[in-house]
Amino acid sequence: MPIIIAENLSKYYPVAIKEPGIAGTINHFFNRKYRPIKAVENVSFEIAPGEVVGFLGPNGAGKTTTLKMLTGLIHPSSGMVKVAGSVPFNRQEAFLHKITLVMGQKQQLIWDLPAMDSLKINAAVYNISDQEFHRRVGELTEMLGLENKLTQPVRKLSLGERMKAELLAALLHRPQVLFLDEPTLGLDVNAQVAVRDFLREYNQLYQATILLTSHYMADITALCERVLLIYQGKLMYDGGLDQLLERFAPYREIYVELAEPLTREKLMSYGDLQSLEGRAVRFIVEREALTRTVSQILADLEVLDLTVTEPPVEEVIGRVFQAGFV
After folding, report:
1. What pLDDT score does 326 carry?
2. Is 32 helix (H, G, I), strand (E, B) or coil?
3. Helix residue spans in the chain (DSSP H)
4. Which fold has domain 49-245?
5. Which distant-in-sequence residues (6+ apart) come within 8 Å of 16 by Cβ?
6. Which of the two residues, 326 and 168, has the higher pLDDT score?
7. Which residues have C-beta within 8 Å of that of residue 235, sequence separation ≥ 6?
8. Percent of the chain at pLDDT above 70?
9. How far apart, in Å, are the Cα atoms of 178 and each of 75, 99, 161, 268?
């Protein structure tokens, strides 16, 4: 059975309409009118227990609104949603013990206190015994590499250490479902890798379900085999990341290092010439023409090195959103 079910999930916000000028202000005061803004419209999907799913979309697409409906922070205007067998907006205690929401731009740890003090508060909220508390903190501390950091004031921690401590606090009650909204936001490359490695290990260890939003495509490609794409409040795609790339990237990139520089005119016949810097050349070719093009390049030119790669996944996702449909 799916652990997350969303059927025709929609959220509309009423926005007041005001005409300009004094007359418009007076009319707005006594006879206010509204128009509905669609933040999310008829979104449907299911997620199985233990899945790690990427939730992608440009700013304002409806990702955070959807997460807030899934966690019960806001009520949907229409549609049905169930998470771990519960209706989120009812905010039942059993439901709250099964989920967690981590937002990269928000914090729950108290700034001037050691993280350990905030963790003890969380333990009391979730009725975790002292023995179990110390066991879980020790286990998560080791997984996150936070040894000797939890006794320092939170403001003394680096951004990466703070994010790890936030994750520890969010997972202390060992939830079944993790909603992660930009968990690596603002982190350097090493900290991003550490957070990804931890999430992968946590998922494998506890079979936790993860719904992840991120603007860092490396997060998605490292953790998610399946992605949901939302655009202007509507779900555009629900399927495998590999299939998405196949569908929207019908070409390959060929990087060539030549023995000696050649002019742009001599190279244009081999494919769509994207860049030429000295002896380094970059082509784009259709998938069907790849074998023929590579053979022709090797036969005609003196090549020191040749590499065929997929286009960057960021570029592929961007093309999907620019198209506005799937």
Report:
1. 47
2. coil
3. 21-30, 63-71, 93-96, 115-125, 130-144, 159-171, 189-206, 217-223, 241-248, 264-267, 290-300, 313-323
4. Rossmann fold (3.40.50)
5. 28, 32, 33, 34
6. 168
7. 42, 43, 44, 45, 228, 229
8. 96
9. 19, 6, 20, 49
Q: What is the pLDDT of residues 32-46, one digit of tens each?
A: 888 888 999 999 999
Task: Break the chain into its structural domains and give their ranges.
Answer: 49-245, 251-309
- CA torsion 164-169-175-179 (nearest 10°) is -60
Residue pair 183/147 in contact (Cβ under 8 Å)? The answer is no
Residue 292 has pLDDT above 70, yes or no: yes
Query: Of 244, 253, 235, nearest to 316 (Cα)?
Result: 244
Q: Is the pLDDT of residue 322 over 70?
A: no
Determine the CATH number of domain 251-309. Answer: 3.30.70
Could you tell me the pTM of the whole model? 0.80
Q: For 141-167, how does the pLDDT look when each residue is reduced to its tens digit (9 = 90+)? A: 999 999 889 999 999 999 889 999 999
- Which of 318 and 233 is assigned the larger pLDDT? 233
Q: Residues 257, 279: contact at Cβ < 8 Å?
A: yes
Q: What is the DSSP string of 124-190?
A: HHTT--HHHHHHHHHHHHHHHT-TTTTTSBGGGS-HHHHHHHHHHHHHTT--SEEEEESTTTT--HH
Sequence letter at residue 317: I
Q: Phi and psi at residue 244, in whole multiples of 5°?
A: -65, -45
Strand-pair partners of 256: 281, 306
pLDDT score for 34: 85
Give the count of beta carbons closer than 10 Å to the beta carbon of residue 97: 16
Check if the beta carbon of residue 47 is closer than 8 Å to that of residue 4. Answer: yes
> Which amino acid, one-letter code, is at 147?
E
- The gap from C-alpha 53 to its chain's centroid, in whole angstroms, comes to 8
- Do 191 and 163 contact (CB within 8 A), yes or no? yes
Among 223, 214, 156, 222, CA closest to 187: 214
